[in-house]
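Per your request, structure below.
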């Protein structure tokens, strides 16, 4: 296991708080390198929608300039983003629907 050290003061002494937060001797919070910060589902979805919008603008620009190579590149990337967004939405919605169906169908009468 790799020993951790504070990046600001270099100390290897840490204090663990009750909420799972680790503080250095100097008071700076230390983040566990194995724990990645979770991105919100809605934030990821918004980023994908923004990227799709920019790709559509670039496709229009390539059509105006008659740039076939750029057009093909952006269309491929657009298809990938749209498919990813669609599967992501279907996956989250199907789980929600299954939970609802299970909740109402397993209800004893």
């Amino acid at each position: 296991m790799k020993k951790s050290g504070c990046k600001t003061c270099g100390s290897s002494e840490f204090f663990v708080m009750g909420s799972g937060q680790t503080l250095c001797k100097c008071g700076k919070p230390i983040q566990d390198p194995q724990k990645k910060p979770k991105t919100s589902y809605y934030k990821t979805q918004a980023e994908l929608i923004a990227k799709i919008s920019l790709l559509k603008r670039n496709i229009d620009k390539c059509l105006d300039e008659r740039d076939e190579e750029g057009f093909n590149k952006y269309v491929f990337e657009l298809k990938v983003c749209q498919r990813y967004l669609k599967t992501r939405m279907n996956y989250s919605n199907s789980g929600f629907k299954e939970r609802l169906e299970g909740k109402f169908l397993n209800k004893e009468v």
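DSSP finds two helices and three strands in the chain.

Regards,
D.
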